[in-house]
Amino acid sequence: MAKIKIHTEYEGAWSDARKPLLCLDTGKWRTQRPVANEEKCNYCSLCALYCTVQCMVDKKSHFQPDLKFCKGCGICARECPQKAIVMISEGEFRDEGFE
């Protein structure tokens, strides 16, 4: 049985907003991953705004998904007006030896 790491001292609905409530590595079961092209990105932040799990990381010139938490839903790619994010099958990365 896998152990779940809970990074909080609080149980239930109470939390301290200055600390993370629950940080689970949820990105391992996705079938597609977003790949951002920083050349096309105009830094509008719509991908970060619409990301349901808020895993888009601000790199100060573009946004990059944090693949530890990304579920591969593709909302970021659909909302990007520049088409700077494309969804690629996880199988393509595994076949090429990338993680």
Overview of the molecule:
Helices cover 17% and strands 16% of the residues. The chain has 3 helices and 4 strands, in the order βαββαβα. The chain has a two-stranded antiparallel ribbon with strand order 1-4. Strands 2-3 form a two-stranded antiparallel ribbon. Strand 2 (56-58) and strand 3 form a beta hairpin. It is globular.
Sum up the overall morphology in one term. Answer: globular
Assembly state of the chains shown = single chain
CATH architecture: 2-Layer Sandwich
Instruction: Please state roughly what percent of the residues sit in beta strands, choosing from under 5%, 5-15%, 15-25%, 25-35%, 35-45% or over 45%.
Output: 15-25%
Low-pLDDT segments, ≥5 res: none
Distance between the termini: 24 Å
Task: Using the coordinates shown, work out and report the CATH topology.
Answer: Alpha-Beta Plaits
Strands, helices and their partners?
Layout: E1 32-36, H1 46-50, E2 56-58, E3 63-65, H2 75-79, E4 85-89, H3 90-96
Antiparallel strand pairs: 1-4, 2-3
Keywords:
single chain; 99 residues; alpha+beta; Alpha-Beta Plaits; two-stranded antiparallel ribbon; two-stranded antiparallel sheet; 3 helices; 4 strands; 17% helix; globular
Summary, kept brief:
This protein has 99 residues and is α+β, with helices and mostly antiparallel strands. 17% of the residues lie in helices and 16% in strands.
